[in-house]
Design goal:
The chain is about 10% helix and about 45% strand. It contains five helices and 29 strands.
């Protein structure tokens, strides 16, 4: 990558961790970012940690909540409900899913007492998600749009269930008919709900393939065949440009697909030297794609060519007036050498910023919900980091 990034805040936990997501916060709390982390211990008590990052003070307030449901495998925040999230937890062979809400308003405002002193705060369960075939849950994802929270849960037995959180009832259920994997693993690993076209499509992975579930007709089709060498580990939709899906997998590649034509990706590059575990679009500036892998590295990539704001061609830039050309020249003159290099680098797709402060597998990396320049990352050894996009990159996008 072109730049090396550094964390601005960190904390560590005593247990193994692999579950992390950002939580929805109110619009008037622009300097406050909220995250939830879960521990994964088969023989020890497990915990949920509500982490509130104050960007102005660069401090993390941690609230510890005991969790008696067993190992926590994944967490996903609700886009509709403040401090609400779905959790997949329990023994590896019989995982279940539930939706919870944190009742710790003081901590949401950054006024918590600190780690270990907030155990009296309650964790309220809103609903259990019941799979129609009673199988072990692997992943959950919330419908990204709409006034009511709707959850999709998928299982290792290829069952996909949509669930109304408020009514605590199943909406629909479907069992995928999948192609035989050349790796013979029959492994489901990820799901993503498209934010476009009334959120009618859910994409789920099975081994190296990606399938599309149409919620309006409750049918499914093979969308992407052989997306990666090995399993597809993570997928995410671009909220700012229709049809664009990013994936990462065992081959370390980060790909961007136009789901209307999936013969080959519109972008593919090996960003990691080992398994890619997580990939996420920046919801504000979709040219930025965040990914993490099993070698402890986190990468921010620039994929402007497949974004909602592609680079201007020479013809389009020369079509302006002389005044605009002069403004551009004076702006370039005002750049220092490093800023000019960043601007030039961002004209091409590829790895932009590397973060190398984790020592073990980084299972999750997520953008803050209310700040396009901040993200969190979590590794298996319990290391949680808050990271910023370098100011040179930020100014290259904004100016």
């Amino acid at each position: 990558a072109f730049l090396q990034g550094e964390s601005v805040a960190l904390c560590g936990f005593d247990h193994q961790t692999r579950a992390l997501d950002a939580l929805y916060v109110e619009e008037n709390e622009e300097d406050i970012m909220s995250f939830v982390v879960g521990t994964q211990c088969s023989a020890s008590p497990n915990f949920l940690y509500h982490l509130v990052y104050n960007d102005e003070e660069e401090e993390i307030t941690t609230n510890t909540i005991p969790f008696d449901g067993g190992e926590i495998w994944s967490l996903v925040g609700s886009p509709q409900l403040s401090s609400a999230f779905a959790a997949v937890y329990g023994p590896s062979h019989s995982k279940v899913a539930s939706v919870f809400v944190l009742n710790d308003k003081n901590d949401e405002l950054g006024e918590g007492e600190g780690e270990g002193e907030g155990e009296a705060n309650k964790l309220e369960k809103l609903t259990d998600v019941v799979m129609s075939d009673k199988s072990s849950v692997y992943d959950c994802v919330f419908q990204p749009e709409g006034s009511k929270p709707v959850l999709c849960a998928s299982s290792l037995s290829r069952c996909v269930t949509t669930w109304d959180v408020q009514k605590q009832a199943e909406i629909a259920s479907l069992t995928l008919t999948c192609e035989q994997s050349q790796y013979h693993t029959s492994m489901h690993t990820a799901a993503a709900w498209t934010p476009h076209q009334s959120c009618k499509s859910i994409f789920v992975t099975m081994d190296e393939n990606v399938y599309c579930v149409d919620t309006s007709s409750n049918t499914h089709t093979l969308s992407i065949s052989n997306a990666h060498i090995g399993c597809v580990r993570s997928i995410d939709f671009n909220r700012n440009k229709q049809y664009m899906l990013t994936t990462t997998g065992d081959d370390g590649n980060v790909c961007v697909w136009d789901v209307r034509n999936t013969v080959k990706p519109v972008f593919r590059k090996q960003m990691h030297t080992f398994w890619g575990w997580c990939v996420n679009y920046n919801t504000f500036y979709d040219k930025l794609i965040l990914s993490s892998c099993a070698d402890g590295q986190v990468v921010v990539s620039n994929v402007a060519s497949a974004s909602s704001d592609p680079p201007q061609t020479p013809n389009s830039t020369s079509a302006g007036t002389n005044n605009s050309d002069s403004d551009s020249d004076s702006e370039s003159d005002g750049d220092d050498d490093e800023q000019a290099l960043v601007r030039e680098k961002m004209k091409a797709d590829g790895a932009l910023v590397e973060y190398n402060e984790h020592e073990e597998s980084v299972y999750r990396c997520v953008w803050a919900n209310n700040d396009p320049w901040t993200f969190a990352s979590l590794s298996l050894d319990g290391r949680f980091l808050i990271n910023h996009i370098p100011s040179k990159v930020k100014f290259s996008i904004l100016l």
